[in-house]
Amino acid sequence: MVKEVNIRGRKYFRCMFCRLIYKKRKLAEEHEAFCKKYDAQISNLNKAKKLEYR
């Protein structure tokens, strides 16, 4: 979900995963899809590492 924010009277769009701000909604949505995918990969790696060390 991309959130619309106003900064100094201008519209910007924020990625809710990493909080990066974009001028265009399309770019923010594309970045957010990347963040979701990347976040899932990282969490899966972390789970695998935890199991490995047990």
Word description of this protein:
The chain has one helix at residues 25-53; strands at residues 2-7, 10-15, 21-22. With 54 residues, the protein is an alpha+beta fold. The chain has one domain. The protein has a 3-stranded antiparallel sheet with strand order 1-2-3, covered by helices on one side. A hairpin with a 2-residue loop joins strand 1 and strand 2.
Write a short abstract of this structure.
With 54 residues, this protein is an alpha+beta fold. 54% of the residues lie in helices and 26% in strands. It has one domain.
| N-to-C series of helices and strands | EEEH
Q: Can you tell me the number of structural domains?
A: 1
**What amount of the residues lies in strands?**
25-35%
Which residues form runs of ≥5 with pLDDT under 50? none
Number of strands: 3
Give the helix/strand class: alpha+beta
Strand order of the largest sheet: 1-2-3
Summed up, the helix count is 1
Helix content: 40-55%
The CA-CA distance between the termini, in Å, is 36 Å
Mean pLDDT: 82
Task: Supply database-style keywords.
1 helix, 3-stranded antiparallel sheet, 54 residues, alpha+beta
